[in-house]
Amino acid sequence: MTLHSRSYHRISARLSTAAVAATTSVLLAATGMTGVAGAEENSGVNNSNPAYDTVDGSMRGASDLGSGETIGAIGSVNLQEDDFYTSLPRFIDGKPGQVLKSQPSNFALGIPKIDWTNTEATRIAYVSTNSQGKTVPVTGTVFTSSAPWKGKGPRPLLTIAPGTQGAGDACSPGITTPYGLDYEGAPIAAALARGWNVALTDLMGLGTKPQHTYMNREDQGHATLDMARATLNLKNKNIPANSPVATWGYSQGGGASASALELQPTYAPDLNLVTGYAGGVPADLAVTAEGVDGMVLAGAMGYTINGMLYAYPELRPELDKQLNDKGREVLNQTKDECIVQSLLRQSFRDSRELTKDGRSLSEILKSEPIASAVRKQEIGHLKPKVPVYIGHGTHDDVIPVRQARHLARTWCSKGVPVYYQEQRIPSVAPLVNHMVPMLSHLTPAMEWLEKVINGADYPTTPCGEIPADNAPDGNADFITPGSVEGAGQTSSDGVPGSLESKAYGSSAGPVTKR
């Protein structure tokens, strides 16, 4: 089936929006938001919305239902249909970006195994380098667009790092995307509709033998960069060898994209990287741990610690001394859980119940020798050489916004052209305030990236106008793209919204691409 390019763009945009909205609804339903009355104490998020607290309490009350047969049913689903993943060894010789093997795949958006976009999808295994300097196999999927590219130069390649999928092999985006089960379908569809090609990495350990090294800065950054290299090495006639490359990611994927952007000058200087988007970035794991502890995404603490133990096995004796039997049980559970399982089983878990001395896991992460490993994951110490769009939500209840503000100011102070966009979505419900900006940043970020790719003028944000870590978040004059207040506004160049603000000044004028 072939669609007229304009119709394809229009339909794709609608379905991309629907895909993220549906994902948010599914995640909320999975956690058991059933309207049970009686909110518990405020989650710690800076919000004053009674409805948020009511939903928070309802979800906490229902989270205990996530056990038994429900978990067993989810855990028994096996989407692997062949040995494409299981035949890969833990380590492999090769050059980063080298293609090991490939096979046809499918891009399903909403309907399993049905591709209405006329997209050529190819599953690949490729070589990357882990944080220990060893070459390892990683998997991903390449999507070639059937829509015309109307910009300047060769068709771009958008390399997407996925947001949190979980830690089990069945969570791999390469496995779930053909079934229409992955929320990365939204940016994939949006980019394909613009005539971009897309490369979606599974990141290290999702689908393959090693433990997924969740939020490992180097592993994620390298896997993202090498996914772009491998895509170009496919020698596909529809993927120009000189394609301008942009990275993309939100949440965990935002951390991977940000890491790739700052690692590229030394790790992949051969790659024609021109720009990138990093949204909802967990730039500081210590801060993120505080944000998720006792909240709906508490299971991510298990992903993080299991990933750290795999990358740094020397930490295991220290953690064994700190964890009680329940703590070890939770680590064992989360090793193979996907996100929906963790939402059902781990939501609102208080990590103080998992340690022998009653300290929280975030406190333990601050003690040596664990603290040194955590500091290695901090993003912002290096400098990207390309313009970057950084986006976040002011009321994000999973990844505190101060991380994005700090990263944006740090990179800006190093001379990086940064366009910082903070969306003040009203507090709605646990996790929703983290998920909604993923959708509302979508079009503004892609339009901004396309300006950079085309060599057109693009706006940036002066360093002094990026909010401080503790800047107030309730000023009604601070309106950004995607916010409810600014949804109907358009800047002079057609990008939805603007950074015009009485609180923080206005965004810089257009900057000409070097």
UniProtKB/TrEMBL annotation:
InterPro entries (UniProt xref): AB_hydrolase_fold (IPR029058), Lipase_secreted (IPR005152)
Transferase in keyword set: no
Signal peptide: 1-29
Alphabetical keyword list: Signal
Pfam families documented for this protein: LIP
GO molecular function: triacylglycerol lipase activity
SUPFAM superfamilies: alpha/beta-Hydrolases (SSF53474)
Region of interest (Disordered), residue spans: 463-514
GO terms of biological process kind: lipid catabolic process
Protein name, per record: Inactive lipase
Organism, as annotated: Corynebacterium anserum
